[in-house]
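*** Protein under study ***
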Amino acid sequence: MAVISLEKIEAIASDQASLVAARKLVKPSSWSGLSSDNAGLIWGECQGSGSSPYRVVASEIDAGYKCTCPSRKFPCKHSLALMWMRAERKVSFESAESPQWVQDWVRRRRSGSDVSASAEAQPKSLVQATTDGPEEIDPKVEARAAAARDRSRRERETAILAGLDDLDRWLIDQTEGGLAGFAGHAGKSCRSIAQRLVDAKAPGLASRLDLLPSRILSLPEHLRATVAVEQLGQLHLLAEAYRRQESLDLDLCADVRREVGWTQARESLLGEDGALCISGSWRVVGIVSEVQPDRLRRLETWLWREGATDAPHVAVLLDFVPIASGQTRGPYRTGERMEATLVYYRFARPLRALIKETSNPAHECSASLELSKDGLAGAIAEYENALTRVPWINMWPMKFSEARVRRNSERLFLCSANDAGVALPLLMSQASTVTPLLAMEKIDGFGLWDGYSFRLCFAQTLLGRWVSE
C-alpha cells in the first residue's frame, strides 16, 4: 500500500496560501475521531467556523480526498492538514472500521461521481508554510480599524432605530385596517416592511415578518386573526425592548439583540469570559432542515444531555448553508451520541450552543434515553414559564413521557396517556409518518412546540425508536 508523503501533499496543494492555512490545523486539538482502516483510508472531524465539525476523508493510495466544508479550493486546508498529519506520523490514528459517511464517499468514487480537482502548477513549499511567521501588526492601522468598527456599529444602531420607527407605523396601519382580514394581504404587506428592516440592518425582525404569512395560513381559519394579534404583538414587544436595552439584564438584552439581527462570531463566543460551558454525554434527539426566505437552508441539530441533574439539559446547533449547495442534512443523525463540551450563547433561556471540543465523536447508539419523568402537562408548564421570561419565543423544545398519539377527524394530536387533558396538534405535514404511532399505548419523546403546532422529532416506543427523518 502506498503511503502519503509530504512531497505528494506539496504537489496537490492549489497554492502556497492553502499550505499555510493547513499548517495551522496540523495539531490534535483541532481534530476528533482521527482514524484509519489500515487499508488506505484515513478520516477525522475538524472543528471549523460553524457549529458542526467538518468531516474529512482521504485515501493514502492516490491522495484522493473529500471534505464537507464549503471551500472553493481543492483540496481544502482540512484535507491537506489530515494528510499532513498522516505523513508526519506525529499524530496517532486509531484503527477502526470506516463509518457510513466514509463508505458512501468510497462508493461515489468508484462510480466516478466524486473526482478530486487537480492543482495548478504553482510554486509551493511545505518548509515555507511551516516557517512563515505571523505578520507584524501596525498599532496605527489597528487603531484606525477599531475606530472604523465603532463608527460602523453606531451607524447600524441608528439605522435599526429608524427601522423600528417604520415598524411602529406599519403596526398601527395594520391595526387600524382591522386584523380580521390580515391573513388575506399578509404576504405583500409583510414583504414590504421586511425589506425596509433589511435596509435598516435588522435582518432578524425581517425574517420574522417574511415567515409570518405562511405561519398564519398554515393554521385553521378560525385561529388566524388571533395568531396575527399575538405575532404582531411580539414584534411590538421586541421593538420596545430594543429601545430600552439599558434597563434589561444582560441575558435578556442579548436575547433582544439576537432577535433583531445582531450576531456573535464563533471566535468571540469561545473567547468570552464567563460563557456557559457544559461537558457531558449528548444525544441527538432532533434534526430540522428548512429553507428560509433568504435562500439559506437552516439546519438545526437538537441535543439532549444524558444523566443531567442541572440545567440546561437541551442545546441546539445551528448551521446555515446556501440552498444552491444542495446540502439538505447536517453531519449528525437522530440517535447518535457524543462526548463533548458545549459553550452556550448568552440568552435569557440558554438553548443555542457551539461545540467547543469533543472527546468522543458522534456515533450510533441504540440504548434507550431517559428524557423526562414529566408528562405533557409538565412540558406545557415549562413552556409557559419560559414565556413569562421571553414572551417572543417562536419555538420551544419539549421532552415528555407517557403520551400517545390520537386522531380527531383529519388531525393528529399528541395527548397525555393518563387523560390529563393536554392535547397538542401535530404538524399536518407529519401526518403520514406519525400515523403508525396511533397503535402505541404510550410513547416517550422529544419535539418542538411553537404555540400552535407540535413537531415530533423523536419517540421511544415498546417496539423501538421512531424518528422524523
